[in-house]
């Protein structure tokens, strides 16, 4: 999910990216050639997530989805962005119900009717990453679960609608926070969005809540951002499990997340990981 912890929170392990890449500093403005490559890496991610949403069913395990994602990413000429990053073992992060982020795929974690399933993945293609996440209501979910999933996706688009050259990160954050809270949910603050490109995690941190303690960066055409609101049905606070990766809600409430990689343009935005 991101520059996974912001400077206000206790750091959690970041989301995996290939260990062979060196971390680059500063906000990168992508060239037309680089943007075109990112369109391809993001298309791979979008394809995999769309296919997973179509094949997932009760009885499958999160390890089954992980194997499928890795196979499809490699078939399309890319490598999984997450696998091996800081030792993360999977090609996807798979979280169910009260799991918030960084869930490790597991052959013992069986998907059941009514689950709120988050699948986050990235693809590394010709030296550039794409990154996206979806939340799936498995078969038939409870009304409150369905509302949480719907609001999480709508909040993502409320944030994306603010994107254009000359706008600010707080425009995105405020739109997300206002929409989430108006619908009775809360934004998780420990984990944020991020820039994405040559590295899976680049500057700037793209937060989902208003704060004076993080830089309010002015957007420029050519920036590529992973915008990803994370919503909890109860408390916004999380804790990390003993596996040192999986974050869960502190009160066992449900959590949902959606993410797109978005290109900033002079007049607005382009959603690079659009699944349609």
Low-confidence sequence ranges: 2-23
Overall average pLDDT: 92
- Top-tier CATH class: Alpha Beta
Strand content: 15-25%
User: Given the structure, what is the number of helices?
Assistant: 4
Secondary-structure element sequence?
A: HHEEEEEHHEEEEEEEEEE
Helix content: 25-40%
Main-sheet strand order equals 8-7-9-14-15
Task: Give an overview of the whole structure.
With 276 residues, the chain is α+β, with helices and mostly antiparallel strands. It has one domain: Creatine Amidinohydrolase, CATH 3.90.230. Helices cover 25% and strands 23% of the residues. The protein is built from four helices and 15 strands. The strands form four sheets. Strands 8-7-9-14-15 form a five-stranded antiparallel β-sheet. Helix 1 packs antiparallel against helix 2 and helix 3 runs antiparallel to helix 4. It is globular. The N terminus is likely disordered.
